[in-house]
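hiii, so i know i said id send this last week but things got crazy w the move. better late than never?? heres the sequnce for the chain we talked about at the cafe, plus the structure i predicted for it. fair warning i was half asleep when i ran it
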Amino acid sequence: MKKTFITFLTVIAFLFTAHSAHSEVIKSPVAFHFTTVGDCRGEPSLAGATEQDLLWLQNTRVLARMIREMQIEKPQALFYNGDMIYGYSSKKETMDRYYAYWRGMMACLMESGTYVVPIPGNHEVQIKIKSAEGKEKKTAVVENENIWRTNMGDLIFNPDRWKSITHKEATAWNVENRPKIGTDGITTDQKQLSYSFDVGKSHFSMINTDPVGFDSSAPVKWLEADFKAAKKRGAKKFFIFGHKMAFTYVPEKQKADKQNKEGGFDARPEIRDAFWNLVEAYQALYFTGHEHTYHAEQPRKNQGGKAWQVIVGGGGSPFSIPKEFMEKEGERMYAWADVLIYENGKVSIRIVGFDEDFGPTRVIEEWDIAA
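okay and structure toks below
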């Protein structure tokens, strides 16, 4: 009798739990669904490239598969975190060809219900130059910022097209809301390079991390004002998308080998720290690329920090982490983030991808961020 009573209570508890979970789903529908990734550009120095590969310099096989699988999941938006083209040129004819190929690939996503939001990377805005000592240097140039606007301006931002594709209103969009010359190291017009908008109670800010004259940086003062205004409007969740990471990821094995390089805001520690102070203050999520890998971390966890940096630079460019230094399989996988924002404020993040042998797509990692 006692055993039967315990079993009965167990069943009741299970039913109550299931009902509660179901009720939670009913109470908290998905407010917005997006994906994000970066770095699908090809590499001309790789062996075996065809004449056509060298013409477009795009990892078509990876990008096509990601697009197809995103179409199945039906996100309302894809935030593309830079290095979508090889670039590194100010020849408009060459750059237009690169952009045209990438846009052609993305057109089917737009057609099937996913708005593509582009963020500039260093390959879009920089060129390679040689110093007086003969060393190669990468630096942003105004010509490439102008070419970016010419090719991406209609995507940044079209509220009517956004609504027709996502079935959501985008508010607080203002092309004049951008970092101003004379602040944040800005020397050129950042129109359509750094920008922001709201969707419901979520705020989305896209930043150019390589402005002319101040490469490898973040427009911290602009972001601070942008976030403050968004919070005043009622924003509860803050998302930042930029190409270069605040904190470069280096596996422990690679640190020991001393073959690591600083690739993000590490080059400007004062900018990195000021940027992350702001990220922590608003509990924002920073999605980034540049490193061709997947890595998620809470950089200040040991100091009580809760904010996340998520590197999703596995869009098809050559992997950044050599096999001998790899610590987790996901570091050498073509991977993207699939993100659900719920009405109750909870955010669910899944990292999805496939390996370099093009095996089955699977969930690499997933976690929730509480409301």
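btw The radius of gyration is 22 Å. thought thatd interest u
miss u guys!!
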